[in-house]
Fold these 2 entries.
Entry 1:
Amino acid sequence: METVNSAFQYCDQLVRDFEKVIEAPIVTKSSVYYTGVDLGTAYIVLAVLDENYQPVAGAYRFAHVVKDGMVVDYIGAIRIVKELKQELEQKLGAELIYAAAALPPGTDSLDSGAIKHVVQGAGFEITNVLDEPTAANAVLKIQDGVIVDIGGGTTGIAILKDGKVIYVADEPTGGTHFSLVLAGAYKMSFDDADQYKRDFKNHRELIPVLRPVIEKVSSIISRHIREYPVKEIYLVGGTCCLNGIEDIITKQTNLPTYKPQNPMFVTPLGIALNCTQEIL
Ligand SMILES: Nc1ncnc2c1ncn2[C@@H]1O[C@H](COP(=O)(O)OP(=O)(O)OP(=O)(O)O)[C@@H](O)[C@H]1O
Ligand SMILES: [Mg+2]
């Protein structure tokens, strides 16, 4: 279990540091800044690291410019990334030049051009476009097991063997569907249901209502890992913030399931860790 503990130690510390600098950026000068741009279905997140790859600033915005990993509002995406970039540049008193971005697994042949153009359109030099689970694993540092990224629109699955991604999949079930279930059950608008869901105080009450959709995600995981000797599940993505989701997944899949303290920023930080100064 050594690997599990040490992986989460690094991950939890990095995420904690990132949460701090979102509130209070570190403005001491760095010779270079590395930015990770995560264009998600629910959130656009920018994570900025210094020359030593330590978090110095971050910002995020709820947005609907991406659907199931595809950029559907190209102009809107550029505008938001540009605004977040400017906001962070002002706070840091420095220009952000280099960025990396990521794609859900399996969509690269379709969409890597669009993501790259959004990041460039916002004024960055793009240095890397990687797949999301590989990004997440830069933070988790898992050798063997499956990383399950339950985001807004999709659930990304990446099986690792000896630290390398050997199988990936992306399925269109995510937090958006959780909110739709709640909107129906509670007769709320989608936005109200999503907000209600994000409040940790409500999680205990929500778990029974969300159980069927969590079980569906569990069956998706089980189906994809069936032919691989996976012994452990690692959860990331905003939807995994839900208290108790890990217990249902453990029960349904019969596999020990781990999640870091805040699974929401793992992928954006992993993207930033993969940013370099070499322009693509
Ligand atoms: N505290 C919370 N409790 C429960 N759900 C949450 C919480 N915070 C965020 N979420 C949910 O997490 C989802 C967004 O997660 P994330 O930021 O990982 O997705 P994304 O990267 O934008 O989407 P995708 O990866 O599918 O493109 C939303 O559905 C949101 O409602
Ligand atoms: Mg995501």
Entry 2:
Amino acid sequence: MGLLQDRTALVTGGAGGIGLATATRLAAEGAHVFVTGRRKTELDAAVEAIGPAATGIVGDIADPADLDRLYEAIAGRGQGLDVLFANAAVAEFASLAQITEEHFDRLFGINVRGTLFTVQKALPLLNDGASVILNGSTNADVGAEAFGVYAASKAAVRSFARTWANELKGRGIRVNTVTPGPTDTPGLSGLATDEEAAAQFRRILAAQVPLGRLAGPEEIAAAVVFLASDQSSFVTGSSLYVDGGVNQI
Ligand SMILES: NC(=O)c1ccc[n+]([C@@H]2O[C@H](COP(=O)([O-])OP(=O)(O)OC[C@H]3O[C@@H](n4cnc5c(N)ncnc54)[C@H](OP(=O)(O)O)[C@@H]3O)[C@@H](O)[C@H]2O)c1
């Protein structure tokens, strides 16, 4: 028996990086996992890799109509939803002087508005005792240059977890944030202009981490499985740092 035997889970942004690693672990623990993402080819490949315990639904979390379609599909399975990992987000650099309205709207539209409606629209489907996990970031606590809008979006997400944990406690629904440090994913490397710059960027970030390396996406997934399962039954409203010590020491 896995830790999540016969549960139903949703991972947004589940076609790559931390989302794919987590969807893979949730399935290995016995859950049926819905995964969503905007690119069909990547999503199909992820579903194929995870196996028969996965269902892919193409969609953008920033589009309420896509969220409605996603939740219709989950409702059609007839088991409600036990685990919601609101993971999808985007990151881009822009200093205060460089920020445009488009940059702000894109990051807040996906990371904040999209996360909010991902959870709000799940409410009728969430089973009593469900676990909601939001993906935060260590950047929410620090002032990394040219990362202000992303950092603020993740601070908003962390704040949502506190409020929603309070609002949903009566249904036994726990809401927590997982807070990754730098993690080796396509999204992280995509912040650099080319592969050489990405390798240099990964080296610089790794040197800032007390454990001396980036996290693997499966290390974040392990923490999400803990928060998703009954192993964390007395944990709500909290933030679980999986950061190699970068924000701790
Ligand atoms: N990697 C890190 O160092 C790190 C550190 C702290 C926190 N995080 C957080 O961890 C989460 C995952 O990051 P990652 O590094 O794994 O990113 P990633 O490699 O870029 O993967 C993100 C996934 O989300 C999907 N996605 C993006 N926007 C979406 C949208 N609007 N609707 C639906 N799906 C969407 C992408 O697929 P499509 O493009 O096909 O939609 C992609 O598969 C994010 O919340 C990120 O902020 C990452």
